[in-house]
Design a protein that fits this description.
CATH superfamily: Response regulator
Shape: globular
Number of domains: 1
Radius of gyration: 13 Å
CATH architecture: 3-Layer(aba) Sandwich
Order of helices and strands: EHEHEHEHEH
Number of helices: 5
Structural class: alpha/beta
Length: about 130
């Protein structure tokens, strides 16, 4: 799986400012097709309507958290192949471990810049 800047990316965060920041960073990296959702439930609807190559989701959201979204994505045969990057304000090791066990591909702690985001995305798409 190689990094394709033309793939669709879904950004999920209930904080509009964060969505805007991440979308701007993705544009700086070179992504052109970026959609957003304000929570996990809305994200699942969008994931059912379009082929996404990457999911970038906040951890702390209501009513469905990023962690719950990750579990639903990984349990769905049609979606489980999509790389998933979790964004969080706090790097609690138990959260990192829980997310890894649930099948997260990478983890980003806020605040971060385009270079950090690009590095995390590239590492997800590097051949194993």
């Amino acid at each position: 799986m190689s990094l394709d800047l033309n793939m669709s990316v879904l950004v999920i965060d209930d904080y509009k400012t964060m969505v805007r920041i991440i979308k701007n960073l993705l544009k700086q990296i070179g992504f052109t097709d970026v959609d957003d959702a304000s929570d996990g439930s809305e994200a699942l609807v969008k994931l059912g309507q379009k082929d996404y190559g990457l999911i970038i989701s906040d951890w702390n959201m209501e009513p469905m958290t990023g962690y719950e979204l990750l579990q639903k994505v990984r349990a769905d045969d049609a979606l489980k192949h999509i790389p998933f990057i979790m964004v969080t304000a706090e790097a609690k090791s138990e959260n990192v471990v829980a997310a890894k066990e649930a099948g997260v591909n990478n983890y980003i702690v806020k605040p971060f810049n385009a270079q950090t985001l690009k590095g995390k995305i590239e590492s997800v798409f590097q051949p194993a």
